[in-house]
Sequence to fold (310 residues):
Amino acid sequence: MQTGKPDFLDRLAQLLVIAVGIFALLFGLFMIISPLDWYTAIPTVITTGPPNKHFIRDIGIAYASCGIILLYASINIHMRWMAALAGGLWLSLHGILHIYEVSVGICSPEVFVADAPGVLGPPLLVFAALAILFIRQRITPAGLPKAAVMNAIDKLNPGESEYMRDVASAPGHAFEKMMHFSPAANHRHAAPAALFHAARIGATLVEDCGPCAITAANGALTDDVPREQINQMLAGGDALQADEKLAFDFGQAIANGAPEAFALGDKIESQYSRDVRFELAMGAAIVRSYPAMKRGLGLTKACSLTPMEV
Fold:
């Protein structure tokens, strides 16, 4: 899941979706506003039969709708990947229709080749953008099949499997709601990675000294925080450098409900920014909900059973 500012490949995926969205919207508007001009502007369309303004506008509405959905998805592609998938669905089905027509001889290979860039290119770009995000695991789990999410949890965080199975079996779509909630605990845009994860691990250690702390530590590893520094956090934070210790203590103060949280937060805000304070506070506040839930379900483990290092 994405943490931190989008990198080059994230932006590339976003730009691909934006480009297809603009193309589909403008192409659709052309068909809606001036269907006969569109009919004569695309040489291969004439071979399909006489123009029908109503049907041309129908197709234009489909194109424009796809464009609007894709542009909506591009604003936050990591969270709205399902919207991008939906926006590319009709475009891809349209492309499959063209492939079918050339395969059965309804249209000639020459016509197909002429149409291919505008018909097959857009959906392929959308799916290329989604592939960039999926391969790098830069999407929110919300929307993925339940079995796929549970399989990933079993492999990556075996200690989390038991309580997540309770969530998965709960009525009222609890699992889907949880998948929408989870990304908030990983929100980082302005905060340095080491400070952000120090606050999260500090807060987690107040609630838990077992699997949840290790899960938080593994999240720091994937965000390129040095292993030695993470183990210092897991050991209680005393060996951390000044700024990381400040963030660690801030997270612990939030989790403990301690009055020191105000002064620590003010210091972080003065040294960094209000945004950094917000991200550390949000991460620390939300991440503690997971061990709290496990404790409520009676699934906590003794500290001695979990090695506190990564």
